[in-house]
Amino acid sequence: MAENNCLTLKIITPNRVFYEGEAEMVEFNTSEGEIGVLPGHLPMTVIVKPGVLTITEPEGEKEAALHAGFVEILPDRVTVLAEIVEWPDEIDAARAEAAKERAEERIHEHASDTDIARAETALLRAMARIQVIK
Q1: CA 95 to CA 93: how far, in whole Å?
Q2: The model's pTM
Q3: Which of 9, 39, 72, 123 would bridge with 23, disulfide CB 3.0–4.6 Å?
């Protein structure tokens, strides 16, 4: 059970348990905007939008690139079911920059609405990767 000033955080991907531990706060992007979760938060479920995941532990902060998934928030714990989440040392900087450039090109080509939405999501993912490794 988490202490009063911490919550239990578990981040699960299809391939592994990415993170399991105690956090003072968790911050990430949702489809409704950026959110910060502290112990005692009202229960809710949110959809992840690509961006930087910040985990504030008693020892300091950790950042990762979080790309897609769902989050269950309860007063004493947060569970992230993520499609993809990466620590900075798992990210290939050159590949992320190339993906960013490709996405920007597709957006500027003004293709169909579906293609634009996919390109915008790809751009957000690439930008999250780049931000985490800097």
Answers
A1: 5
A2: 0.81
A3: 9
